[in-house]
Amino acid sequence: MRTVALTQSAKTSKNHDEGLLMAKRISNAISFPEGPVREVMGKQVLMGKTDYQMIADTSRM
Question: Is residue 10 part of a domain?
Fold first, then answer.
C-alpha cells in the first residue's frame, strides 16, 4: 500500500536520471530495519530485514 501511494503521488520526473533518483528514494522509503519481522526456528529467532535493493532500467538495459 505504501509503495502504491508513493508512486502515485510522486512528482513526474523531467528526465531519465531524475526518474531513477525518484525510484531510489521510493525504494529507500519502503525498506525496513532488522526486527519487525521475526521467525522462530527451534531455539533461534531470525529477524527479517531488507538486505539489498535493486533498481533496473528496462528501457535502457
Answer: yes
